């Protein structure tokens, strides 16, 4: 590779979209750290294949203590964080009127509070070194809404607001903050959709298919490329044209 390896933190990289993002940065030659509550065969394989360039630490990011311990482990290993991809997220199906306190807490505590915790800890370090790039993974349903995903949509819309505010707070220190709002991806999270729902989504999508983790991972690489230092405060929709 022509540039120096960067220290990249991807939250929730044990499967699904996060795993695709981890793989993309490993393929680009970077040093990659990820966390989730439990490990997976992919995580074990990366650790075996890239012992010097990959770090996994179990963490529940709805706890600020776990978020701090995760970032501390990265800094202890590699001394800094250059790129943060806030990817970890969870959805609970059900209309708001029927939601329990737990349904609300689980989604808000990870999607919103977890992202705030990690972003706060990492951005302090980026401020000190006056460089860095952050990408927040939100969702098209944060814009369009979706019946049965009210709490999830609320957290994702909040992340888009966070992206714009952090871009304003950090821009003068050489730190870019952008968001990606994916459409429907072929991951475990979309397993709750039945065949009829998936078929309808595909028919309405100009690209004629569901999204793949790689569609989003490529955009992460672009948004965090040091040559794109003038690109900040934006949320890019990547949904095959579904909401165009
Ligand atoms: P996924 O397959 O369910 O993966 C979620 C990841 O987050 C896993 O690594 C999971 O590992 C981790 N995670 C869950 N709870 C956690 C916690 N409390 N602390 C730390 N890590 C936790 O989901 P995905 O589809 O890849 O989604 C990734 C992101 O894309 C999410 O932010 C999601 O909202 C967004 N998104 C997804 C879609 C879609 O169609 N799939 C569309 C738009 C946006 P553990 O369970 O072991 O903790």
Bulk shape? globular
Quantity of strands, as a count? 7
Q: Report, as a whole number of angstroms, the end-to-end distance.
A: 36 Å
Secondary structure: helix percent? 40-55%
Rounded Rg: 17 Å
Structure description:
The structure is a single chain. The chain is α/β, with parallel strands linked by helices and 244 residues long. The protein is built from 8 helices and 7 strands; from the N terminus they run βαβαβαβαβααβααβ. It has helices at 16-27, 41-49, 64-78, 101-129, 141-144, 150-170, 195-204, 213-223; strands at 7-11, 31-36, 54-58, 83-86, 132-137, 175-182, 235-238. It has a 7-stranded parallel sheet with strand order 3-2-1-4-5-6-7, with helices on both faces. α1 (16-27) packs across α8 (213-223) and α3 runs parallel beside α4 (101-129). The longest helix has 29 residues, at 101-129. It is globular and about 45 Å long. It starts with 6 loop residues before the first strand and ends in a 6-residue tail after the last strand.
């Amino acid at each position: 590779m022509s540039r120096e390896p960067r220290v990249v933190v991807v939250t929730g990289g044990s499967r699904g979209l996060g795993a695709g993002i981890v793989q993309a940065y490993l393929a680009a030659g970077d040093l990659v750290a990820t966390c989730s509550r439990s490990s997976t065969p992919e995580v074990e394989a990366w650790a075996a294949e890239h012992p010097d360039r990959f770090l996994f630490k179990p963490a529940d990011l709805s706890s600020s203590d776990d978020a701090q311990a995760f970032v501390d482990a990265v800094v202890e290993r590699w001394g800094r964080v250059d790129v943060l991809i806030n990817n970890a997220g969870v959805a609970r199906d059900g209309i708001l009127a029927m939601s329990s306190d737990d349904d609300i807490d689980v989604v808000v505590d990870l999607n919103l509070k977890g992202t705030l915790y990690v972003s706060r800890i990492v951005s302090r370090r980026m401020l000190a070194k006056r460089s860095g790039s952050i990408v927040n993974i939100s969702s098209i349903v944060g814009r369009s809404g979706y019946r049965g995903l009210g709490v999830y949509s609320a957290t994702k819309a909040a992340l888009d607001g966070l992206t714009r505010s952090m871009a304003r707070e950090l821009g003068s220190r050489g730190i870019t903050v952008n968001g990606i709002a994916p459409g429907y991806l072929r991951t475990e999270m979309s397993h709750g959709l039945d065949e009829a729902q998936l078929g309808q989504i595909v028919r309405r999508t100009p690209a004629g298919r569901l999204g793949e983790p790689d569609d989003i991972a490529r955009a992460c690489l672009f948004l965090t490329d040091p040559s794109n230092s003038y690109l900040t405060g934006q949320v890019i929709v990547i949904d095959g044209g579904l909401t165009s």
